[in-house]
Amino acid sequence: MELLKCENISKIYGSGDTEVRALDHVSFTVEKGEFVSIIGPSGSGKSTLLHILGGVDKPTEGKVFIDGTEIHSLNEDKLAIFRRRQIGLVYQFYNLMPTLNIDENIALPHLLDGRELDQERLDSVVEHLGLTDRRQNLPSQLSGGQQQRVSIGRALYSHPAILLADEPTGNLDRKTGEEIIELLKESNRKNEQTLILITHDEGLALQADRVISIEDGRIMRNEKVHNIV
Amino acid sequence: MKNKKIIFKVTKSYMMKNKKRTFITFAGILVMVILMTAVFIGKDTIMEFMQKAVEADQGKWHYQVYDLDRSRAEAIAALGSVEKMGVSRALGYTEFPQSGNPEYTPYLEIKGYSEEIFDWMNIRVKEGRFPENENEILLSERALKEGSDIQIGDTIDIDTFERYIHAFYKEGEEEEIAEGAEPGGITFFSGFHVQHGDTVKLPDHFGYCLSNADFEIIHIPTGLKKTVTVVGIMEAPYYEAQGQGGYIALMLTDGEIGENEHVNVVLTTDLNSREDIFGKIAQILDDARTEEERQAVREQGSGYYTDDGTLIPTEEGRIVANSMLLLFAAKGTDGNLNALMIFAQAFFIILITAAALILIYNVFSISFNERSRYLGMLSSVGATRKQRKWSVYYEVFSLLIPAIPLGILLGLLLVKGAMSLLYPHFADIISMIATNVITGRSCEIECRLVVNPLNILFIIFFSALAVWVSAWLPALKISKIGPVESIRGGERAAKGKTKRFKPLPGLMKKGMPEQLLAAASVSRNPYSTKGIIRSITAFIVLTLVTSFAVRSFADILKSKANREEFIPGEKYQGYTYSFGVDDELQYANGVSDILSSDELESYTELNMAYFKYNIAIGDYTEEFYNTLKTLLEMYFPNGIPETIASNFLKPESVWANPEVNMLTIADEDFEKLADKAGADLSGLTNPVLAYDTVVLTTDEFRFSYEGSVKPDYTNYQLKKVLNVKEGESFNLLTTDYIEETEEVPEIDIPVSFAGYLNAKDLEEYGSFNGKALWIIVPAKTAAYLDSNTPKGNSANIGTRSILFNVNTDDSALIRRLSQIKNEFGDSALSSSAMLSEYTDFKNAALKIVSIVAVCFTLLIAVICLLNLYNSVMGRRLARQRELTALASVGITNKQRMHMLLWENVRLLARSFIYSALITTAFVVCLRMMLNSRFGRMIFTLPFQVIAVTVLVSCAGLFIFTALCYSEKRKSELIDEVRTEMV
Question: Which of B489, B500, B895 sits opposite A112 (nearest CB)?
Fold first, then answer.
């Protein structure tokens, strides 16, 4: 079942001499529960694409449909609500609320959505992440790997339809990076969440169901992994 | 410096990159320089304006000393702080046949001035010129206004004389004196007293009077006889009174003093000198006295206390100081007022510096996180602590350099602008005094900026010092952070990784994400929230402390400067004419004429009496008695002499009991006031209400009695001084006089005490001051009191007048009433403008000082609000990461607004708690300091100012939050994400 659909996405920054075409008529679809890696060199436009998919940036032209909703036609507040319900963003630099502790950070999108706290579920997520003894700590009191776990924990707890991860291991050592990828994959598998992962690491990309390769804002390759292998 | 170059370069690039932050820091420093300029330049400017206003009203002279021989005058001229001395001669009176008002002013009162005195005394020529030799004369405009047809160029034959008075003995008095009785005497309305049998010179400016059965007026020629030419008409000098017997005429006189001559001298002095000039002059005069003369002066009861407490006897009015002028130069003869002026100046400078320090410290404190990052980077490449510290200093001082000239310029413009705005108001006040005191006297005061180069140096010095002090602490903190903590960022890096923060499970469980975010942000983000809490607290504390201090200083100034027992309020204002005469019949006729006239437009009666009755000391509270005793003990630390005690503490006569003043009002008005006081009048016979405050000060009780010392000025405000309960009765005391037996029997008039009124209740009637209790009685009670008070008792004389307006410019009623004179020849009809609030310069000056103080408070408030804006904006910039995270997890605009709202509520709550604690501490300290110096004053809390300050701080925070967080989120979201990813 098709969950995400990009139609002719273009993104242009600046104008005239300084015009930069970050994305150039990009189109693809992602199935529900699919794990897709997006790879490409620096400046190829992959982060821009992820921001547009996550609704934090707008395309210059083209449309993005998630679960049949054209997200950029939503007004600001509706888009925000859509984002917290349907999209989980995981960044290289974790993107946690510096003033909230682990529990509060994990539960935040859920609470913002007006839903009641499920303490049991929260305890289980925190335990699963191995953060039980740090749950009252603020992000600044955690290691990078722990912070990234919290940001994944947020996605696990609020259960969004799509997880968008922008180089989530880029700031971590190999071992911790592997642990984080395992968590993401687990979330993808167990919860049937669609996972879109941006990475430089080809080995990591090959763990996905499908790899989309981008260069100069264009899709150069969009293939199932077993085809590549 | 070489090894700091790279640090400076990096700091500069940081400043360029963070333009908003740099601008906020610059604005903070700039505001501080503006503020310093406003304080230093503003103070001098306003003081000069006030000095000029006093000069315009009273003249530029500093001291006048009367009746000096050559050697005393030379001794005074030789005093270190005397700058110039002019000679003034009272040349005597001459007949003035050209007078247009010969019945009351038949003379010229001629004075000789040496050249400089014409300027010092503000003599203004309206027509013609100043005298250039001793055969020319300048004449007061009053002579022409009262009908004289004299013109410039006319000549006057002068043949001067002095006026003496000889009071006759009463029949048989000489024999009685021979048998040991005290001689009687005549006391004139002005207070001048002459003993029966004595012949004394009449004082200057004394009214015209003819010999009668009680006294004889004697003219003794002084020998000045010549013909002089009128060369000019001058505005009436400030000292020329309406009732005096001669028009003032001035001649040019020689500055040299003859060997056997006695003259008056006028002095200007060095206002920066610390010499006690008044004391020195008093000492010179005293040195010339014989022991007998000294004793005689002592018996008059006036004297001057030097700083070391020595009492030098001085005759009343022999040395006259231009008190207000000296006061505004902080050189007044009253040491306590000088102390207050200096205390007030120091207080405001400290306050403004404190505001500036908080402002700059805040700016640095808020940006701590950002700075720690780039400084961490520097640290990681080997920058030492000292180098990192210098980075902060470089930033502030590089901003201070352009801020100084710009700030001084803007500060000057601010002072100039403020003065331009206030000038019309000041001019109004000044012109009212001029109109009231000296009819028709113009009063134009130039208002200019006073820029003393030394003050500019002070501004630069204090600004640099304030910048250094306020940057020192952040610099120290930043220098202590290691590279790793800095790069990891976060204020918490400095706090340590292990600190536990209070969990907020309740809010999370209740599903209140906005409140949760707000609570977490406020309690776990100490640097940026502390900045806002500090700003609001500073705003509230500084505004309230300034307001409290201003109010207290004004209260003390009012208490010291305002000797008026009663200043009529709104109810008695707005009337053009006032008719009042002591004679009962004349008054009744006049009132009847007014009330029956078709020309009458509106009227009211003002009926009040000073010291009308006494109330037995036993009917006063113990607090009143003890305070009175404390006051007396301050004068007599070694024990209160029996004579004094029997006059105050153990009254042996009715008159030794404390006096009461009385205001009579209409019965229906009394009932309204009783309602306000919550008094139940039913069942009360002859009710009276009392004003709830009595002020006892060391100025109200002055003693130069044997063994007395000069206490510091002390002011005791006492509330509800009567030891009588509401509904109970007490006696008003007076006396009768039985001529046959010469007995003075006590008469007790019982009245019912209905209750107390406060200042607000009585606002429309006026303000009531002084040491005597004020009672307010209805017409019915007044009639009862009158009927029980013996006729002919001097205490029965009240100040009673009818205030009214007429409906025509050419009023026959006014012409008729103008003919009625009181026993001293003054018209019974006067301008009721004299009753207005601005009765004298002191009140006007107080008004101006109050306006300046309010402006100052507003300025402080504005600066604190700017500080608050800086803090809110600083916090907004510092929490970019937080907002990015929130945006990415899908917070809506409404939720964000709720979060900010809850944050503000929490910030305000914390700020109010801190403000209440700090303000209370400051106010208590200030109150203790003022009380220790000025006595037990009742300082009222400025509730309105508190309410306004709290409201403004709430409004300010919400408005600034709206402004700082209103930028378009959509456009910033991706930028934020990107920035955070760099």
Answer: B895
Q: How far apart are CA B214 and CA B209, in angstroms?
A: 12
- Closest-CA distance, B865 to chain A, in angstroms, reads 27
Reference B537, options B278, B859, B115, B911; nearest CA is: B911
Q: Say if CB B471 and CB B388 are below 8 A apart.
A: no
What are the chain B neighbours of A122 within 8 Å (beta carbons)? none
Angstrom distances, CA of residue A103 to CA of A96, A116, A120, A134, B503: 12, 14, 12, 9, 10
Two tokens, residue A44: 């190829």
Please name the residues between 867 and 926 in chain B that touch chain A, using a CB distance below 8 Å.
Answer: 881-882, 884-895
What angle in degrees, to the nearest 10, is found between the helix axes of A144-158 and A119-129? Answer: 150
B347: left (phi over 0), alpha (psi -120 to 50) or beta: alpha
With an 8 Å Cβ cutoff, are A54 and B888 in contact? yes
Chain A residue closest in CA terms to B895: A112
Percent with pLDDT over 70 in chain A:
98
Contact A76 B973 (CB under 8 A): no
pLDDT of residue B380: 66
What does the DSSP assignment read for A63-102? EEEETTEEGGGS-HHHHHHHHHHHEEEE-TT----TTS-H
Q: Each residue of B155-174: pLDDT tens digit?
A: 999 999 999 999 998 888 88
Do A99 and B974 count as a contact with CB atoms less than 8 A apart? no
- State the pLDDT at residue B154: 92
Q: Which residues contact A102 (CB under 8 A, 6 or more apart)?
A: A126, A131, A134, A135, A136, A137, A142, A150, A153
Q: Residue B265 belongs to what H/E stretch?
A: strand B263-269
CA distances from B599 to B350, B576, B589, B606, B809 (A): 59, 13, 16, 20, 10
Tell me which chain A residues have a C-beta less than 8 angstroms from the C-beta of B881: 98
Residues of chain A neighbouring B974 (CB-CB closer than 8 A): 51, 56-57
Chain B CB contacts of A80 under 8 Å are: 887, 890-893
Chain-chain contact of B885 with A92 (C-beta, under 8 angstroms): no
Query: Where exactly are the structural domains of chain B?
Result: 2-52+338-497+507-560+843-981, 60-275, 566-838
Residue among B126, B101, B123, B125 at smallest CA distance from B112: B123
E-strand ranges in B96-154 read 107-113, 125-128, 136-140
What tens digit of pLDDT does each residue of B435-460 get? 333 333 445 667 788 888 998 998 89
Per-residue pLDDT tens digits for B556-607 = 766 665 555 677 788 888 887 888 877 777 788 888 889 988 889 989 888 8
Q: Which residue of B has its CA nearest to A90?
A: B888
Q: Do B504 and A58 touch (CB under 8 A)?
A: no
Average pLDDT on B253-268 reads 87
**Cα–Cα distance measured from residue B692 to residue B756, given in angstroms and rounded to the nearest whole number:** 5
Domains and CATH numbers, chain A: 33-55+76-228 (3.40.50.300)
Angstrom distance (rounded) from CA B785 to CA B776: 12
| Chain B hits for A141, Cβ within 8 Å | 492, 497-499
Tell me how close the Cα of B372 comes to any Cα of chain A, in angstroms.
15
A141 → chain B, closest CA residue: B497
